[in-house]
Amino acid sequence: xxxxxxxxxxxxxxxxxxxxxxxxxxxxxxxxxxxxxxxxxxxxxxxxxxxxxxxxxxxxxxxxxxxxxxxxxxxxxxxxxxxxxxxxxxxxxxxxxxxxxxxxxxxxxxxxxxxxxxxxxxxxxxxxxxxxxxxxxxxxxxxxxxxxxxxxxxxxxxxxxxxxxxxxxxxxxxxxxxxxxxxxxxxxxxxxxxxxxxxxxxxxxxxxxxxxxxxxxxxxxxxxxxxxxxxxxxxxxxxxxxxxxxxxxxxxxxxxxxxxxxxxxxxxxxxxxxxxxxxxxxxxxxxxxxxxxxxxxxxxxxxxxxxxxxxxxxxxxxxxxxxxxxxxxxxxxxxxxxxxxxxxxxxxxxxxxxxxxxxxxxxxxxxxxxxxxxxxxxxxxxxxxxxxxxxxxxxxxx
Length: 398
Hints:
Rossmann fold, alpha/beta, five-stranded mixed β-sheet, elongated, 17 strands
């Protein structure tokens, strides 16, 4: 089995060409000079060890370039306002590459990895869709997980929790020595310590993508780490085709007025037209007063501003914990003035809840915008998808 550095001195000592060679199986090589675990057993510098290469189509916040024995994964904005960060993913068994420029300080990570610590539930569908669940050995907080197979592994101890209280337990992670800790797209002082201990820290900042398909395409980042590029292309192409097919159905119909979002701690957060959710609503054939705003984030508004411009919308789309319209009125009695409350057309994206209350909309929905879009089209234009079975949205009872 592969060995990896757990502490700085050991890491430095192993950064020679023998680092990656020493970490591979010594099983006889096949026609591609690779063992069954994906490691090279008889390195040949003329061989291209990445015959399956990912082509990035919709995502804008990461890129992948290839050399014969390594690939360079670059995340343009690892977290809000951050500078680009690159990772050199070296085929295990190949000598450490000679790098220049900014890559000389980049982390070098042997791939395919055998264990992964995940900092966000949005990573979990990327792993399971690639049939790589065995690689997942840690999650930051199991209470938010909705996938029952992952929950079972947490309960059995096969998957550890390393930030259950919201703070990364650095000592626990270092002792576990995962190949990679994948971040949730935010910064944390613990990441510096983990890098110094020889643990790969790779940013997953899919939430900074402004398009639904761009977010889903981050499955190719996990594929780069696990060697499942061909499978990732198959999964993503299917999602993309289905998304575009549903969007095409809604493209020629008359748009429907909607009310979006709701109050949180005194502020109504409204999707702008340039946001991730705004793209979904627009593609579903919706219209709302802030659709022409091109900023990418949610717009903080007061109740009066929303009511003045959108109270008459016949359909209200929300994502929260409400189980009924009465729950909405209990939160804020002013909701009673909204037309959608009067007509009963309030739809909440909390149909798919896990056994511990985690919302699969936030988990699987990132990978499956095609399913979200189909739900939205069925709500707004039911004649276009007459036999639709809802995945994430449900109409709230009174």
